[in-house]
Amino acid sequence: MKHRVIKENDLFFLTDESGDIPPGSTDGCGLYTQDTRFLSRLELSINGVKPILLESSAETNCQAVFRLTNPHMEEEGQVKLWRETVEIMRHRFIQDGVLYESIAYTNYGPKTVGFETSITVDADFADMFTVRGIKAGMIGSVTGKSVDADRIAIRYAGADGIARETRIAWNIPADRVSPDGTVTFALELKPREVRTIELTVTPVIADKAPQAKPREEALRLLDASYRRWEQGSTSVDSDLEIFNKLYHRGMRDLRMLLTDLGHGPFPVAGLPWYAVPFGRDSLIAALQMLPANPEVALGTLRTMAVYQGSKVDPWRDETPGKIMHEIRYGELANTNQIPFTPYYGSVDSTPLFVVLAIEYYRWTGDLGAIRELMPALERALEWIDQSGDLDGDGFVEYHSVSSGGIANQGWKDSGDSIVHASGDFAETPIALAEVQGYVYLAKTGMAEIFRKLGRNAEAEALERAAADMKRRFEQSFWMADESFYAIALDREKRQVQSVTSNPGHLLMTGLPDENRAELVARRLTAEDMFSGYGIRTMSEKSTGYNPMSYHNGSVWPHDNSLCLIGMSRMGFIEQALKVTRGLMRAAEHFEYARLPELFCGYEDTLGRPVPYPVACSPQAWAAGTPLIFLQVFLGLDPDVPDGIIRLRPALPEGMNRLSVRQLRVGSGTLSLTVTRREGNAVPEVEVEHNSTGCELRVLHAIHQDVQN
């Protein structure tokens, strides 16, 4: 079933294509906030029958529209309502914690018509983990339902001691309101007459109720917030339409996925199931967003610092200095039936926290923010060397001790994702290749920051540790017969000899030997790894390969984007452009030109990418992937602390002009146009505005021929 979903801050609404939440739906439809479903049924009918869907769209993310009409209706041989007489337009949006919906009925018949229309509502207050079928447990109960002529209120007493309530109100008197939650209106419409019913749905938690505004005022405020986002972010325009669509779609999706817990905006992981703070996902999405809106990176860093681990708690896989994996707010979490308050079971969130801070500093030069975050950054570095290194071998490993925890704690966290050539699953503790790269970048980057702060002895210690780690990594992870890095070392320090996308992340970290880095870049875009639509998570030649799997042969856009950052930085331009072309081709086949969380890894000879059945869309780090395309096409590598912005432009096939406005770097913005003229292999750069305070250096491509 296709869904329609809208979100604003912490409230999101998931329905079927007609805009309904059918009773007993197994697709998780509902209105959610704080990991609780506050609306579990919403059905519209006309004369007791479901209308016919003509079209629907949630393309703008913050609003959804549905166009429906009536079926043919007869009673005892008499026409009650001729087919397609009444157009029904549903329009909904969310603003400041309230759902607004208008239902406009237009009579397109030649004569006056009369009919009844009903809206049936209910709320079960189910926990998100229960809705997803992951966990059942001790829960509260619905304690009452009050029914009035202009409103319904449904109340719930949670097992966590929190009172919850759903309030549904409408703007015109109803003719009947039934105890089951069915609200009926009798309408009579002259030809071309329009009547509109307006609804509001307000979730209430612990007696804290958002205040509904007049509909037009709420819509104006929502539109204004999106305009501010667009005006304050980098904009692009090119002569390659699919890139324009992808970038604009990514920016709108990321705006929708922003949430603020009081420490600045940050992206939640994705809809519908991951609309909460995630360490890894939020950090990577914020990293992707640096060229567009670096303020999100700062909000993400501040939020993660607030929830940084402070103690040893095996139930939550928490240790001091560790950055969280995921936080939940529902009944099961509040009663400690699940460990997500927050849960710390990810091995990469902590080094990625440091990496994002380093990259934020490189893009902005904001040393004040780094000073503010320094206690959290120092604790993260301590975690890397202490709790993160489980056996003292200098590599960071994971091993879950929580009975409710996650077994595999890298980004490929499914149970079958770390698999030996024999087909056996690796046993923990496991040291992942890409995590060692993040750690290397964290140490070398923090060494540079320490030098800026005059802390030279600490900088030198980090550099020595990083150099020693680099030497040992090359010895331990390199698979000579594959000319590639192993995905991991298992508990016995044996290589997990699968060829996967994970080592592609190393390219952005500086960890691999340069010659080996080139072999990695070439292998990632070879036939066994590159489907034509993107880099697969696992090689076709590896034992565990399955193009339909979640992590062992599928294509994840964000995974590709982290490979792309490194390819661009190291000058592997041919490979980078090949990957961007593939992903742009894939995007043309998805709704709204939106890259999903993942898709299957089948060859592009099929003529279209094969969707993964339960991929989240939109997903933050998939939405952020086109922003990395912009970095690739510009060859953008800022070093604001040293006062330099490097460009190594290389435009993809089909793009001969790329204009960038308000690129946020340093203390200001940069606006420029890159043009490839006929007969010239190297694009020209025209700078129209530069208030960044940095010198702009335009370099030539290295390593590869940019012709593609």
UniProtKB/TrEMBL annotation:
Query: In this protein, which residues make up the domain named Mannosylglycerate hydrolase MGH1-like glycoside hydrolase?
Result: 343-598
User: InterPro entries in the record, alphabetically?
Assistant: 6-hairpin_glycosidase_sf, 6hp_glycosidase-like_sf, GDE_N_bis, MGH1-like_GH
GO biological process, alphabetically ordered: carbohydrate metabolic process
Q: Record's Pfam families?
A: GDE_N_bis (PF14742), MGH1-like_GH (PF22422)
Ranges for domain Putative glycogen debranching enzyme N-terminal come to 6-199
Record-given protein name: Glycogen debranching enzyme
